[in-house]
Amino acid sequence: MAILLEQACSLLQENSRQMPVVELPLAACYGRILAQNTAADIDFPPFARSPLDGYAVRFADVKHATADCPVSLEVIDDVPAGMVPRTAVRAGTAVRIMTGAKIPAGADAVIRLEDTVTVNGFINIITAAGADRNICRQGEEFKQGAVLLTPGSALRDGALGILAMFGQDKPRVYEKPRVAILATGTEIVAVNQLVEPGKIRDSNSYMLAAKVLEAGGEPVLLGQVRDNIDDIEQRLEQAADIDLYLTTGGASVGDYDLMRPLFERLSVRPLFSRVAIKPGMPVLAGCWRDRLLIGLSGNPAAAGVSFELLIRPLVRRMAGVRQIERPRAAAVLQQKLVKTGPVRRFVWAECIFDNGRLAARPLLLQSNGMMAGLLEANALLDIPAFSPPLVAGATVAALLL
Amino acid sequence: MAILLEQACSLLQENSRQMPVVELPLAACYGRILAQNTAADIDFPPFARSPLDGYAVRFADVKHATADCPVSLEVIDDVPAGMVPRTAVRAGTAVRIMTGAKIPAGADAVIRLEDTVTVNGFINIITAAGADRNICRQGEEFKQGAVLLTPGSALRDGALGILAMFGQDKPRVYEKPRVAILATGTEIVAVNQLVEPGKIRDSNSYMLAAKVLEAGGEPVLLGQVRDNIDDIEQRLEQAADIDLYLTTGGASVGDYDLMRPLFERLSVRPLFSRVAIKPGMPVLAGCWRDRLLIGLSGNPAAAGVSFELLIRPLVRRMAGVRQIERPRAAAVLQQKLVKTGPVRRFVWAECIFDNGRLAARPLLLQSNGMMAGLLEANALLDIPAFSPPLVAGATVAALLL
Q1: Which CATH number fits the domain that encloses residue B277?
Q2: Which of B49, B142, B157, B202 has the most A C-beta neighbours within 10 Å, making it the best mutation to test the interface with A?
């Protein structure tokens, strides 16, 4: 019995574990998933500061300044960025201040350098255009104590900048799940091997390894193994420190489909064997020694779809990612799609923006193989079961890859 | 004089070099940029094969088969995947065949297992539903000699699968450009240092390092240095094997802006010093010892925009990427945008799909700092010079990050 995709996803996630947490140097955290809350340890900016080079003044002194009637102020100090003002600004005085420097006490405005004229230790303020005051207030970006990042955040430019701003030089992140990939099938040979009659090279392992990396896991290639249950068992047993086992091939019910007998031999606790989607209906999933072992189809089109829909959310859940699903969007079919039927179907497609709308072009080379389709695909169209054939212009749901 | 963004990009690219080429094991190639053509070395599939488990037959024998009037055939061979058929199919015979196995000579159709009944070494074909023949023809996916990948292809799932299919176990890829990042400014302290009055921690280095990684480069963090031209020079001199030098801070014309005097001291051949965009107008770019040296603003909002518009395309060009620009799309403003003016302006924004259309929400915290904006930003809105204030509902151009 085939189970629904959502049920299959839930079963996998219920039977998976989140990865342990590790401290990493900040510079090594790109692409990692945060495992801690991060609060501002100080206000930011930590002090009122100037956004430009100019003069810190009392606004009351300069509010009537014009080019015809400039206001003259004595310059009593100079504050470069990184230094602390030594003097307060008093009536009739100004302090030269650099971008990023702390506003001296007594000042409540900064006049841009361009709006001043220097005359023998005094400045003439020639415009009151500083009415917006040019002061970045203490804490205007972040208040001390504010929680800025929470567990599950993906660490990219902005998040890494914030961790740095608030002193997190060794953030706690999740370890990456190590995902074993074993290609089974007597017809499969290694990429550097001679392709004898009846054989093909192993392309699934590399395609799936790329998808594991993209999902935030660490692929562990176990190579290729012929259709022999002892060999398959041995290869799986030899792999060390694996968090999730994937195989390709032998997941169906034919004479040489060895994953079912393997599950029995290894006392795998079965979860499901078929998912009600096409392609990728045969998927054998179970629990082996507290890890998930999942047998995908040997057909790259089917294995690719199964990975996207079942394995990627699982890997992301294990990796601690908050948002495990692909974004969904409505897209307009650019050509008809007749391959519908009683089973929910996923169709690789290329989506482009067409005048602010998303247009989807189904990639048709997916009956068998379809590596070429994967080159161009940036979406999977989700066609419901019992959908009628769809005409060009119809709106469909797209998972954006 | 500020030059146009497009001119600045051209100058940088004209003065850059593409990275050298290196051979890498296929499993290490994820995310790399291909530096070779890849043609199919064999047809794919390399032989006619069965897409399912069943019986290879002569279609002429079975075309009238029905459940009421089945056709009986003698089973004369069995071809597992990876094996070579030993016998040709003759009239009145069938060969058992597994998914992926080579079609025996004489057969021109495969009948699904489900449409047969086995009786003592014979099979009864009970439906002629095999009229589509169930044969994947030799070369139906790829013809031998077809060029499938060209230099500049990013190696992700589909491309890695294709390299594997055609025996490329050590593809030639471009080396990643090593991009030095030096944060200058007396106000800047390292992330693990005490934040004394007047100081802030270095967040730009980590934000930019993330952007370098995302662009396909390898960041080399040179740390933080105070506003001292000797110190800055020394730090740049000490960095080894750098393909591109970036600094933050000191790129403007204030008393403590040291990048201009540094350029003179190092005999940097200047390219430009201002780009006609906001934020990020001051950018000091030149050639130093056959490498580009680019001084960005110390303001994260400005440095981030400069990176996106100038540095990212440059890094991608150096890295060998074919598509160096971000995709552009029209987006509908969800709120008004009054901050326009005589200079072309870029505005961080969050774009979401709203009923198949792209809707843009400008992120306003970008006067100064704006790390929080970067957390949510997935687009940069491109507002032309002399644009009037824009109302909610107006269409704008968005660069999709």
Answers
A1: 3.40.980.10
A2: B157
